[in-house]
Task: structure prediction
Amino acid sequence: MNIQTESQALNTYLVKTLLDPDSPDQLAISGSDYALTWHELGEAVIRWEKNYQQHYPQHNVPVVLYGHQQAEFAVALYSCLLHRIPYVPVDYIYPSERLREICELASAPLYYDVERQAFVETGIPAKSLDQQDLAYTMFTSGSTGKPKGVQIGRESVWGFIQWVGSNFFLPEKPVLMNHAVFSFDLSLIPLLANLAKQGHIVLNAKEDIASEDWLVSLKNKKVSAWISTPSFAYQKLLSPQFNADYLSALQVFVFIGEMLNKALVKQLRRRFPQAKIINSYGPTEATIATTVVEITDDILASDSDLLPIGQMMPDSQMELTSEGELVIWGKNVMRGYLGLAEENRQKLLHRQDSQWRGYRTGDLGFENGNLYCTGRNDSQIKLNGYRIEISEIENRILNIAEIQEAVVMPLMKPGGGVLRIVAFCVTTLAADTIKSELAKVVPSYMVPGQIVIKDRLPLNPNGKVDRKLLDAQARVC
Ligand code: AMP
Result:
């Protein structure tokens, strides 16, 4: 199958699912703004595209979608997939300067402000994408100091829809809980599983999740599938109502985005004895998820502390380099980073006998019947499930006038995982000023929790910044 045929297959599937749904009166989306049935969703995706055509008729120019957990956001996104409009999702957690930067990098002359249901002109000249049949470009933290756009083809999205519908242990007509912002591709698990299984997706805004009666609303909506990072589930365990007696419809937990540990699985087993627990792994560059496994009692009882990430999805293969790096080959691998030739040269691989690309993940791992991921070989980290390039924060700080030197480091917890990000700065500026300058250009989760002002940075005997000493100093500050 070639790319065009796969893109067409996605279209045929979406036309049927969105415009001739099996259960038109069943709820399809509950958002922070409104809820709509599958029949209403079909009408809404057509309306959205008509509106778009009036404002934005250029062919193969991406449209930026800017919002936060609204049903209208999901409508715009489904409409783009149906009408072959490449889109770029951006959440309100991004400050306006980062939105602007992304519009520039994507050459997007307009963005759709979801809350106002209005297209906004950016003043940026439109430029057609080099790639054809692109589904979306998702911007992640970039080591050079700017976000980098991961371009995902429609063939990859189609492969994922087919896989998630059959291999993620989801119930029939699932009610899917989404907490992830749409600029994080974890959100595409429930969004695309909803299309694959014609279920009901429940979108949860940050304020709703923080509210006392959030679990009441999940109970009332009969949420049956929970999709989140492990960190998010950990936070919810603090609530005594987070159990099977209260959330009696909940049948499956799908975890992805960071390492799943046994302690979390054991606690969930106690709270939800009947629920399946699924671990999935994958970088944004390989379309959302690449491996999956059910964490059974046998796996939990094994001697190893490490849980497996499972088996590869169809049409893709995992290669392990001699250094233990995981390299993904398959139709799920991105078309490339937008406009970043050097990064593409470093990360993307080509082989004469394969029509698909390979992607060097930067993750380390091994295989013994199942695949395992043990950590990273670079400075990319996960904090509360968010992917962050430490060097992007460092570069952003160094861009602030009056900063002479800066080192940014993750402070690790004893058992693994990041406790907080610390920045050491040689400057006359106050820590709060640095924080507020940073917050103008990066989302709040990238602003270091601790900023230490120094006269100079300590060096080790090799003349390099003494990171061990800084780590120790940060812990007593
Ligand atoms: P993102 O592109 O934000 O989805 O982040 C992808 C990265 O998160 C991967 O390259 C891994 O480092 C990490 N990751 C994702 N899922 C898992 C998992 N199940 N276990 C361990 N690490 C994971």
